[in-house]
Design goal:
Low-confidence stretches: none
Number of strands: 2
Shape: globular
Bound molecules: geranylgeranyl diphosphate
Mean pLDDT: 94
Number of domains: 1
Structural class: mainly alpha
CATH class: Mainly Alpha
Distance between the termini: 29 Å
Strand content: under 5%
Largest sheet: 2 strands, antiparallel
């Protein structure tokens, strides 16, 4: 992208990122002929045209810090979005949250059926790793291998899936603030962590810069989750695109139920500021990442 074409505001940058991610997902998720096309349609239904595309944006922005080619970074951006969309499909299933609405539309199992939704989630997860492992992702196979390993660790039983397990068992334990923090770091934070670290992996960054991105992701992920808890209490379902008030209905301990609205909001603000400060090691190329820290706590959806 030429200098003149760079978007001026975070909103513009998020918008053009969403368009680029959509176009690449469209290419990466073709529909074949044959009766298996139903699962491909469901994969596309749940991953095209929706969501904030925050994780892909973090990949593209972290990659830009190290001058990584956009054609490579966009594949990693789409891979993380596929994993995210798989988690949303499975989270909405009757055996999990049993939700009817996602991104303002019927959930995958409502639009198709439960079996198709289960398979669409599985297939998005596996397609993500196929994309990471593909030669156009990076000329160095060691980099591709590292991306696969970091994403597998972040999304599996030590990461997002493990966090979901803890969440399902939360009623068995005393969920205080440290316990909720650990749960959310696993469930939400690890994928955000991968998204920020991916640019450093693609760009073969030094340890110091990679750690700065990890630290940024840590605080950003928590701020994002606290904001999500606040939206569940204060948000409007039409704006948020999914049911709200779910945590209170389920009697779930959240940052908001434990800290109260005011303290939760000031904690999110503090984490957003702290996240941005971790980026002091980078120049103005990190400005959209700095602005993203504020965006995640101010967002309405
Ligand atoms: C069922 C394998 C499995 C995992 C479930 C991450 C997760 C674990 C479930 C997703 C549902 C959920 C409420 C997760 C918390 C993180 C979160 C707020 C996800 C929604 O992410 P956004 O706001 O969504 O980035 P969009 O639609 O904008 O992409």
């Amino acid at each position: 992208m030429s200098q003149a074409a760079l978007p001026a505001t975070l909103a513009d940058a998020l918008k053009s990122n969403a368009v680029a991610v959509n176009a690449e997902l469209d290419r990466l998720l073709p529909v074949p002929d044959g009766p298996e096309n139903r699962v491909h349609e469901a994969m596309r239904y749940s991953s095209l045209d929706g969501g904030k595309r925050l994780r892909p944006f973090l990949v593209m922005q972290s990659a830009s810090l190290f001058n990584v080619a956009e054609s490579a970074a966009i594949r990693v951006a789409c891979a993380i979005e596929m994993v995210h969309c798989y988690s949303l499909i499975h989270d909405d299933l009757p055996c999990m949250d049993d939700d009817d609405l996602r991104r303002g539309r019927p959930t995958c199992h409502r639009q198709f059926d439960e079996q198709t939704a289960l398979l669409a989630g599985d297939a998005l997860l596996t397609r993500a790793f196929e994309v990471l492992a593909g030669a156009p992702t990076h000329s160095d196979p060691a980099v591709r291998c590292e991306l696969v390993a970091v994403l597998a660790h972040s999304s599996g039983a030590d990461g997002m899936v493990g966090g979901q397990m803890v969440d399902l068992r939360a009623a068995e334990f005393a969920m205080d603030v440290p316990a909720i923090t650990r749960l959310q770091q696993m469930k939400t934070g690890r994928l955000i962590g991968f998204s920020c670290e991916a640019g450093a992996v693609l760009g073969k960054a030094g340890a110091h810069q990679r750690q700065a991105l990890r630290n940024y992701a840590h605080d950003l992920g928590l701020a994002f989750q606290i904001a999500d808890d606040l939206l569940d209490v204060e948000g409007d379902a039409a704006e948020v695109g999914k049911k709200v008030g779910k945590d209170a209905d389920a009697g779930k301990a959240t940052f908001v139920s434990l800290l109260g609205i005011e303290r939760a909001r000031s904690q999110a603000d503090m984490l957003a500021d702290q996240a941005a400060r971790h980026l002091d090691v980078f120049d103005e190329k990190a400005d959209f990442l700095r602005a993203t820290a504020r965006y995640v706590v101010d967002r309405r959806s």
